[in-house]
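Progress report, Aim 2. The chain analyzed during this reporting quarter is listed below.
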Amino acid sequence: VITNRRKRNMMQDLVKTIQQVSYMYQDPVTEFVEALYVDFDFDRAAAKLEECESVLENDFFLTHAVDDFVENARFFLAEVYCRIHKRIDMKALTTRLNMKPEDGEKWIVKLIRESRMDAKVDFKEGTVIMNSSYNPVYQQVIERTRNLVFRTQVMNSSIDKNSNPNKKDDAKQKGKQPRAAKRQETAVAA
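Predicted structure tokens for the chain:
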């Protein structure tokens, strides 16, 4: 989920799963997600991001995903940080992201453009000023119920399949009976 921004909508499910199993299993990646999305502890998330980078570099199966993971993890960290704070010091954010100040400023401007945040960058003061953009309550309800309707439909179809495994066979037989009757009628008429 972290290495692929297209699966961003699955982040809430990942956070719920990590919360449920955190007492049984922990590693730097799960601790990073928990620090960022559950505790909103940005200092701990930045420290875990460094640990994640070293762990992924040493993992044979995940070594190819280190750059994508770090880039997207920085994106998530900066996005959550920007959504929570109204005025952000760019130097402080770049140090949290483990970047050089010059690279960090360019990266933050790129982040604001890509994520379409309503923000203004003040290069004189070195700050990012976030404009508040709250979704109306009815829009939040619509977004949450949209996912609920889909899950309900999937669950209903699964229950139907499990409770009536012969339902398809019955439907096939019902469909065949009228055809056979028509054939017999045409044979009798001829």
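The chain has eight helices and three strands. Confidence is low (pLDDT under 50) at residues 186-190. These observations will guide the mutagenesis work planned for the next reporting period.
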